[in-house]
TrEMBL record:
CDD domains: cupin_QdtA-like, LbH_WxcM_N_like
Name the record gives this protein: Isomerase
SUPFAM superfamilies given in the database record: RmlC-like cupins, Trimeric LpxA-like enzymes
InterPro entries linked to this entry: Hexapep (IPR001451), Hexapep_transf_CS (IPR018357), QdtA_cupin_dom (IPR008894), RmlC-like_jellyroll (IPR014710), RmlC_Cupin_sf (IPR011051), Trans_hexapeptide_repeat (IPR050179), Trimer_LpxA-like_sf (IPR011004)
Record's keyword terms, sorted: Acyltransferase, Isomerase, Repeat, Transferase
Recorded GO MF terms: isomerase activity
PANTHER family in alphabetical order: ACETYLTRANSFERASE, ACYL-[ACYL-CARRIER-PROTEIN]--UDP-N-ACETYLGLUCOSAMINE O-ACYLTRANSFERASE
Membrane-spanning residues: none
Domain Sugar 3,4-ketoisomerase QdtA cupin: from-to ranges: 174-298
Organism name: Plastoroseomonas hellenica
Lineage: Bacteria, Pseudomonadati, Pseudomonadota, Alphaproteobacteria, Acetobacterales
Claim: Isomerase is one of the keywords in the record: yes
Amino acid sequence: MSSPPTFHPNALCESKAIGSGTRIWAFAHILRGAVIGSDNNICDHVFIENDVVIGDRVTVKCGVQLWDGIRVEDDVFIGPNATFTNDLFPRSRVPRKAMPPTLIRRGASIGANATILPGVTVGVGAMVGAGTVITADVPANAVVVGNPARIIGYAGSEVISSQSELPAEADWQIFTTQINTDSRGRLSAWSLASTLPFVPQRLYVIDGAPDGWARGGGAYVRSHQFLLATHGTLTVAMDNGRQRDMICLSSPDRGLYVPPGIWTLQFGHSADAALLVLASELYDPSERIADYDEFLRASRPG
């Protein structure tokens, strides 16, 4: 049986839309229009404006202000004194135009004293380090730190350096490509058909990442891919919905096979990074899954 929300005697809650089991602690102030779900913990000195929606089982630690336009999904953690903003061009006593919404997706964690600029989405399961400044969307499960934020990892995964270290439940493979060099350092030919588990139909090269951020963040329904760093280094996060790994690519004699239905995210590019991708299918945007929750539904049928 669900219990009613509880309010500290020194809390000021003007909203009637507070879910069962939610606790509002001392000196928190919640305006009339705010909507707060069930089993949340709203700590001391939290201010929540009118146009704010919070899901279930959310923790908002002390000293946080949630302004109009902010949406917080289920199971989110917001650390002490995390700072949210909702105006890209703030001026005193100047009426604001429509404010870009800020979305904190399911299961994300925001570290203490992090700053979240307006209009961004922090993805499902992402982890934002203490003091981080978020100026752009954070991919699902990305671990970010710094000012501006940079991706340093993928939540719940470890770095794998060889095929023998891959767990049995992993669907991906690390190949030794056996590409040799001649005396001048040029690459010799490599027989793809004898090595890859698919016949390549498309080839493209990705040079670096915009602003040192990330590429990928999606899965393909039909396409097999083979990834190889021809220059520099980068890290590829792999996720099949059950197992997660990170694989660093830093040499053209070592590549990564990605079967269909695997979520990938590329990050940590060096300045000279170049990634060669061989794909089994011609490009079809309709087969790409870009939403992590949709990916999970597809990877766990029934």
